[in-house]
């Protein structure tokens, strides 16, 4: 059984970063495994792929990017 706490935390941060980009932020910083990554609106697809990866690790459907 995997420890879900860290992937869930990363997923929440990635979702929030995507939300910020979609609501007009020009850049959003995101920390991943000790590495800081800054996403811009041109990186939206890359951020969505990261969210899908995390959802897969957690056994979640990748249909929704946000907690709905």
UniProtKB/TrEMBL annotation:
Coiled coil: none annotated. InterPro entries: GpW, GpW_sf. One of its GO terms (biological process) is viral life cycle. It comes from the Bacteria. Gene3D superfamilies: Head-to-tail joining protein W. This is Phage tail protein. It comes from Paenochrobactrum gallinarii.
């Amino acid at each position: 059984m995997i420890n879900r706490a860290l992937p869930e935390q990363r997923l929440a941060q990635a979702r929030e970063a995507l939300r910020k980009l979609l609501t007009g932020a020009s850049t959003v910083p995101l920390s991943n495994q000790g590495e800081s990554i800054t996403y811009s609106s041109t990186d939206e697809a890359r951020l969505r792929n990261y969210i899908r990866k995390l959802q897969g690790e957690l056994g979640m459907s990748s249909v929704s990017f946000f907690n709905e």
